Amino acid sequence: MATQPLTDILPDAAVDITDVVCPVTFVKAKVALEELDEGQILSVRMNDGEPVQNVPRSIKEEGHQVLKLIDNGDGTYQLLVRKMGE
Amino acid sequence: MAIDYKALKNGGFMRQIQKDRFSLRLKVVGGHLTSDQLDTITRVSRQYGDGRVHLTSRQGVEIPFIRLEDVETVKEELAAGGVDTGVCGPRVRTVTACQGQAICPSGCIDTYALAVEISDRYFGRQLPHKFKFGVTGCMNNCLKAEENDLGVKGGLAVSWKKDACTLCGVCTKACREGALTQTETEIVLDESRCNHCGRCAKSCPFDAWDGASGYILSFGGTFGNLIAKGEEILPIIRDKETLFRVADAALAFFDAHGRPSERFRVSIDRAGWDTFKEAIRAAYEG
After folding, report:
1. What is the pTM of this model?
2. Where are chain B's structural domains?
3. Beta bridge partners of B150
4. Which residue in chain A is spatially nearest to B173 when comparing CA positions?
């Protein structure tokens, strides 16, 4: 696939899901994605543990393109997601 | 004429505490019934039972309060409506299954298709005692594979595809077993820690994991009077031919070593696990 330096991706919007628990984590990320246009990029901040184990897969299963998971080094992660069409 | 309660029981008619009433066990494979079958069951329960059914602990359906004199008519009406009667006694029982890959996003194998194959091959086969098969689609183990005399659990045998990988970091966090490590240039899989859950392959946004379906078998589970968890003694099996060769060998072992009314677990314990493993290994290797 075309490789673009993934760390240089600039998100169009950001959402923090560290203040909610499963399954609201995924719901909150999903709602944030719905507000974007196709092709735009969302940065999702999530906690270590269950969110980081499950949310990327759920977003993939919704049909969006997960681009990169970045370890913030403080027990949280940034997931960069490109919104895909219906 | 004397009533042959044993024959009735073998055919799924379970004697109730109420005189001359029977709870009729139906044949259900993998927990699947069609709405037409449910209609038939509803009709029979209303007409010949007391309007209720009982859902058993192993995905079965029983229609209680069938009168002795209605037994043959009930069988005929059920058969005409596409419903078979179940079995009881010393033989292979209902094959249970979760919904598996055909329905569930977590599924690694087609559990229902496999349950049907197992049932077609073994259902009702006489053995020293009851024998239960259960098929679960993945490590989440909704069907509790290890409770069964022979449990089947779906898994994925995974391998990393370097060319497709962007080192995005998702799989190493999706893995709950600590089997994956990411370096500057690659993902390293520690096979000794991998439990074949397939979370890496299912979470990967770039299809950089090959996941080949396989079967993880457990032997000698029993959760009745004696409680014991089925034991895994083989690596993940990748093809049905091997799976059935091993299952054939397990049943043959039970026939050869089991005493009447003795569960598979007890037979294995008495014959010795080393002896059992040798027989199963031989079948596995073909």
Report:
1. 0.90
2. 5-80, 96-154+214-285
3. B133, B219
4. A53
